[in-house]
Structures are given as structure tokens and as C-alpha cells.
Write a structure and sequence with these properties.
The protein is α/β, with parallel strands linked by helices. It is built from 13 helices and 20 strands. The protein has three domains: about 220 residues, FAD/NAD(P)-binding domain (3-Layer(bba) Sandwich); about 70 residues, no CATH class; about 100 residues, Polyamine Oxidase, Chain A, domain 2. The structure holds flavin-adenine dinucleotide (FAD).
């Protein structure tokens, strides 16, 4: 019977980070991934000459997170092109402006807020899990331009549908990191090796150090007896219908790192083995209404489309027809290889409430309105040569980051009653954005399992 020190469930950003770090530390590790693709929710696929990032678009790590994990395992996360401008749509005047115009008249107000943020400890920011960003900013300034800067960034980073009710702590953790590491309010870059190259590099790092990654391998159950992990089960042979009980392959281990999001983790970890209050936290966050959901639109044009600069990342809180908050950027300006030569691939999304994502009629009608609104904001999009629509809901981007849904309000990454059972997911207790957050969650669990901080991380915060 196969035995490993650690089994990792999932080969997305968290699972591959955990696998590569553990293999580097000399642990025998098996990563199981149910799909044929690496990267999980941050997956890139080919479609008629385009490379479409169905998930991850831009990386938001100033250097201390996923970038450092790559370094640690002997690879490089290449920081490619960085977003240069942040145009914002004024939905009352129906025109574009630069975010700078909103706060630049009196920069002293912004500087005051930045100074306060840099001087605030991580521990103090933790105390803002139950309050909104606006309240924190108003301690230092009433300048609406500064509030706008922070709140528009929360739309871009977290796809919040109500920016005025965004959590202070989750946003400020990232703002503080970006100011300290990159001296800017928000930092986002394209991965130089492309999204598929990114995950391949981490998988290589894992395998080069003896780690194993099994694709098309779905873990059906973590076996726990008397509060001890015994191993995992993998169903053998395809199951023809749902009434069948598959024969299983048993893999022995004393440690499992699950990277499954709150929405499906209890399909694999038996609920009865965890305390009620803990599964209650998981189920609370897993509700549809708390799932970040949006209408994703990919449009290709023959002519370039942008407002201020080709590498801009623009945002708004009400598009002119559907009234949705959203974002837009031109992917082929970040990486020309993602579109056929001479064509321009634009990516945009309009945030919808998760509670409405299952309503097919609402989604169809709102997609039409959203696309019409995009044509008003960007007239150059009105004549697409190619397009693709994606409803982002299952899987979702993440759990919405409103007060009382972040930080200490999330289930802990360590199972409360079962030694060696970890939840390395950005939907559990964690900080950061997207893939960087997932990778940091993995680092936290790996360090806890090893019982020490990894070399080079002694000075960085851990959550
Ligand atoms: C449309 C979209 C756009 C996004 N844009 C960005 C962005 O621009 N920047 C950014 O940083 N982040 C972005 N994100 C968020 C980012 O993709 C996620 O936060 C991150 O990929 C989560 O990684 P993870 O490893 O925690 O989880 P996942 O990627 O969800 O990985 C979990 C893995 O587990 C596998 N799995 C599930 N069940 C089983 C099982 N029973 N057995 C074995 N394997 C199993 C899944 O197939 C999956 O591969 C976006 C997400 C979406 C959906």
C-alpha cells in the first residue's frame, strides 16, 4: 500500500505551492488533482487562436508571497507587464477620468492616509475584520477622492458589488503590502511565463524533488478514525451512475492538506469528523449569496481599445446599462502571444450578486445589457471579431470580503480537532488576493506542519 508523509488535495495555486514546498523540504508528498489541468480556478485554455484565462487574470503579489515561494523552490515567477493606469468611469457624467484626478488636487490627504497605514501594525488591522474600509479611512480624512481610490481598488481586486461595504482589514492588508513592497496603492502584473507556464513551473519544482502529482485523480474521502488521519480514498474505475459504490484505492498518510474551497470541501472531509460549530462556519460562507460572481466577457477587435494607456486596468461602480460594478483590461497588451497577430483581446467583467447567478433568465438578459453598456463605455468594442461569455459562479472567484466574512470570521486553516488536517484555501482564514492568497495559505499550512518558519520567511507576516 502506498504511503506518503503528506497528501495534498488539488493542484491549483495552493496545492502546487504546498506540493513544491514540501518536496523541497524532503517530505514524501502526493498531490491529487481531479481534473486533467493544472492551475485549478486560475486555468488558461486555448480557443480559436486565443489563450483565454477562464480564471486568473493578473497577479497581485508585490514579492513576499507566491513570488517568494517560486524562489524558495528554485523557480522564478517572472513579473511581466505591470498595469499602468486606472481609468474610472463616472456614471453620472457618463465619461472616463483618471483616478488621479479625484485625489490629486490635494495629495496631502492621500499621503496622510498612506502614512497612517504604513504605521499601523498587522495586528491592529486584524481588529478591523468587522468594520468597513470607509470607516477606517474616515479616521484620517474626509476627502472623497481618497475614499474613491481605495474603494475602486476593492472592485478591481475583489469584485465587490457594494464597495461602500467592503471589509477594512482584508483590503488594508493588501494596501499595506503594496505600499511597503512596491510603493504604490495597487500592484498587478501579468505572469511572464503565462498562466499555464506558471503552474507547469511549480509542478516541475515538485516533481524534480521527488514529489508526485496525479492528474485525473479525484479524492472521494479523507479517512479519519478516532480523530486520527489514516489516509485518503480514490475511487477506482469510472462510476457509471450515482447509485454505484466504487471500489477504492487507499493511500496511507498522517497529514492531509485540502485546498478545496468552502463550497465543496465537505464532499471529501466527512462532516461528522469535524465539530458542528466549525462545519457551521464553512456552510455559512458557502452560501450562494456570499460567492463572488460575475459575467465574464472576452472580446477581440481589429483595432486597439483603451482610454489612457494600453496596459491600463479600468473600473467602475455602475456600467451605463446593466448598472453593474466591473473591470476591463486588454490581455493582449499584457501578453501579445495570447491573441493571433494583429488582433486585440479584451477581458471585462460585471459583478452580479451570487444569489442571482442560478437564475438563467436573469443571467442571459443581464449579459446582453452588460455588453451593450460596454459598447457605450468602449465604442471600439461594438464590432467584435470574436467573443466568449463566461458566468463566473461555479467555481466562483472567492468568498465576498465584507465585514464579518473575513479574517477571524472564517474557519481556521487548521482543523480544530484532528492533528494533521489542514485547509489551505483562500476561502478559509487567509489574507491577500486570489492566487497569491491561495499560495500564502499553503505556505502557512506547510510551515505549521513542519513546526517552523521556512528560511527567508522569518520577517514576513503569517496568517
Ligand atoms: C474567473 C476568475 C478570475 C479570477 N481572476 C483572478 C486574478 O486576476 N488574479 C488572481 O490572483 N486570482 C484570480 N482569481 C482567483 C484565483 O483563481 C483563485 O483564488 C485561486 O486560483 C484559488 O486557488 P486554490 O488553489 O486555493 O483553489 P483552486 O484553484 O480551486 O484549486 C482546487 C483544486 O482542487 C481540485 N479538486 C476539487 N475537488 C477535488 C477532489 N475531490 N480531488 C482532487 N482534486 C480536487 C480542483 O479541480 C482544483 O484544481 C480568479 C478566479 C476566477 C474564477
Amino acid at each position: 500500500m502506498a504511503r506518503y508523509d503528506v497528501v495534498v488535495i488539488g493542484a491549483g495555486a495552493a496545492g502546487l505551492s504546498a506540493g513544491a514546498l514540501l518536496a523541497k523540504e524532503g517530505k514524501s508528498v502526493l498531490v491529487c488533482e481531479k481534473s486533467p489541468y493544472l492551475g485549478g480556478r486560475a486555468l488558461a485554455v486555448k480557443d480559436q487562436g486565443f489563450t483565454v484565462n477562464i480564471g486568473g487574470h493578473l497577479i497581485e503579489d508585490g514579492g513576499s508571497g507566491i513570488t517568494k515561494i517560486f524562489e524558495n523552490v528554485g523557480k522564478e515567477l517572472i513579473h511581466g507587464k505591470v498595469n499602468a493606469e486606472m481609468p474610472v468611469w463616472d456614471h453620472e457624467k457618463l465619461e472616463w477620468g483618471s483616478i488621479r484626478d479625484r485625489y490629486a488636487a490635494d495629495k496631502t490627504e492621500l499621503k496622510k492616509v498612506i502614512k497612517a497605514l504604513v504605521n499601523t501594525s498587522w495586528e491592529e488591522l486584524d481588529r478591523w475584520d468587522d468594520r468597513n474600509l470607509r470607516d477606517w479611512i474616515h479616521q484620517y480624512t474626509d476627502d472623497q477622492g481618497v475614499v474613491d481610490l481605495f474603494e475602486y481598488i476593492s472592485v478591481l481586486e475583489c469584485l465587490t458589488d457594494e464597495p461602500w461595504d467592503h471589509s477594512a482589514s482584508d483590503n488594508l492588508f493588501v494596501r499595506k503590502m503594496h505600499y511597503e513592497e512596491k510603493h504604490m496603492a495597487a500592484y498587478s502584473c501579468w505572469p511572464g511565463q503565462g498562466w499555464d507556464g506558471l503552474w507547469q513551473d511549480l509542478a516541475d519544482a515538485c516533481r524534480e524533488k521527488g514529489g508526485e502529482i496525479r492528474m485525473n485523480t479525484s479524492v472521494s474521502r479523507v479517512v479519519i478514525e478516532n480523530r486520527q488521519i489514516k489516509g485518503i480514498e480514490i475511487p477506482r474505475d469510472p462510476i457509471i451512475n450515482s447509485k454505484e459504490t466504487a471500489e477504492v484505492e487507499f493511500v496511507e498518510t498522517g497529514c492531509v492538506i485540502s485546498t478545496l474551497p468552502v463550497w465543496n470541501v465537505l464532499n471529501v472531509i466527512p462532516e461528522n469528523d469535524l465539530p458542528n460549530w466549525y462545519t457551521g462556519q464553512i456552510k455559512h460562507l458557502a452560501q450562494d449569496k456570499y460567492r463572488v460572481s460575475w459575467l465574464g466577457l472576452y472580446i477581440a477587435t481589429e483595432e486597439p481599445v483603451y482610454q489612457y494607456a494600453p496596459q491600463e486596468l479600468s473600473t467602475w461602480v455602475h456600467d451605463p446599462v446593466a448598472g453593474l460594478p466591473g473591470f476591463f483590461f486588454t490581455q493582449s497588451n499584457m501578453d501579445p502571444s495570447t491573441a493571433p497577430e494583429g488582433q486585440h483581446l479584451h477581458v471585462m467583467g460585471g459583478v452580479i450578486p451570487g444569489s442571482k447567478a442560478s437564475d438563467k433568465e436573469y443571467v442571459r438578459e443581464t449579459f446582453d445589457k452588460f455588453e451593450e453598456g460596454m459598447g457605450i463605455m468602449y465604442p471600439g468594442l461594438k464590432n467584435p471579431i470574436w467573443r466568449r461569455r463566461t458566468l463566473v459562479f461555479d467555481p466562483g472567484f472567492g468568498v465576498i470580503q465584507k465585514p464579518c466574512l473575513v479574517g477571524s470570521y472564517r474557519p481556521h486553516w487548521r482543523a480544530p480537532n484532528i492533528p494533521g488536517l489542514y485547509f489551505a484555501s483562500e476561502t478559509f482564514k487567509s489574507r491577500g488576493i486570489g492566487v497569491d492568497r491561495a499560495a500564502r495559505a499553503a505556505l502557512t499550512c506547510v510551515e505549521d506542519y513542519l513546526g517552523r518558519r521556512l528560511d527567508g520567511y522569518e520577517e514576513t507576516w503569517r496568517y
